[in-house]
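tool_call: predict_structure(chain=1)
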Amino acid sequence: MRKYFALTIIVLFLVGLALAANKESGSTKLTNVQPAGTTDKKHKKQQYDLSFTSTTNDYTCRTNEKAKINATDWVVGSRSTTRSTATKARSETPRATKA
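tool_result:
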């Protein structure tokens, strides 16, 4: 009985931590775009590392290996809207292009 009670308390504590994770959103500025890796038979599309700067943090995002991006949508120095958690980030340009 005590084991179940202790396990329940631990699970509730961990769920509370997960829900209270720091989620940030706001306007960021694209500071750098670099190619990541090379293409081969399995990875046919080029990936890119996008570096963003916000008022509080710097972020680096890697594009999806299955999606092709248009380089003219990601101009260095342009503004974008970014939503991020501890492990994932989503950025969107004014033209509604997502990465």
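agent: The mean pLDDT is 75. Proceeding to next step.
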